[in-house]
Inverse folding.
């Protein structure tokens, strides 16, 4: 499924109310909190959009909670970027594609990071390949989008606060439109 603007908004509004992978907040709450963290920290429109949409693949697949409970990695980051490719370029898509790898990387290079993960994040880490090896971490560190993916990962980890008030989805979709591809046919 490749999303257009109407499909993106509909997916977030309708499927976004499902629980976020073993956490006590919804997918939409997590998305809005992640975007708010990015905006708070002065991230670009592209990186704020990546923060908003980094887990969209869970909504596209519709299987996130069942897959996690059944010990299956749904590869949501790949599903998400495939669905968003018509709307955004690599400045949005690359951090989304790398946010799972960024968790694995941080577990390898920061001794306290793994201990601070939520139980649901620890479970998904095991399903996603576990802590990176030294060679994998060195390769990740050389990626030109590594810093953006690490920033996104930290906002992802922070964005699990029950009852937190955030700006609206409309606010962040306006930012996303500003980060959209400018090639013919991408904007609607």
């Amino acid at each position: 499924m490749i999303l257009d603007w109407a499909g993106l908004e509909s997916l977030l509004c309708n499927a976004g109310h499902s629980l976020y992978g073993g956490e006590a907040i919804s997918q939409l709450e997590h998305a809005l909190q992640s975007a708010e963290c990015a905006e708070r920290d002065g991230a670009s429109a592209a990186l704020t959009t990546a923060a908003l949409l980094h887990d969209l693949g869970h909504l596209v697949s519709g299987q996130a909670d069942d897959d996690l409970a059944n010990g299956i990695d749904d590869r949501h980051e790949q599903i998400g970027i495939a669905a968003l490719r018509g709307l955004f370029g690599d400045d949005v898509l690359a951090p989304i594609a790398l946010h799972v790898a960024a968790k694995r990387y941080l577990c390898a290079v920061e001794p306290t990071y793994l201990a601070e993960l939520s139980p649901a994040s620890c479970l998904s880490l095991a399903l996603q390949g576990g802590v990176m090896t030294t060679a994998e971490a060195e390769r990740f560190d050389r990626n030109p989008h590594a810093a953006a993916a690490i920033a996104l990962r930290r906002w992802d980890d922070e964005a699990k606060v029950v009852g937190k008030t955030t700006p609206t989805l409309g606010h962040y979709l306006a930012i996303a439109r500003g980060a959209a591809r400018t090639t013919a046919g991408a904007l609607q």
Remarks:
- Residues 5-160+168-179 form a domain with the Hypothetical protein af1432 fold (CATH 1.10.3210.10).
- Confidence is low (pLDDT under 50) at residues 183-188.
- The first helix runs from residue 5 to 14.
- The chain is about 65% helix and 0% strand.
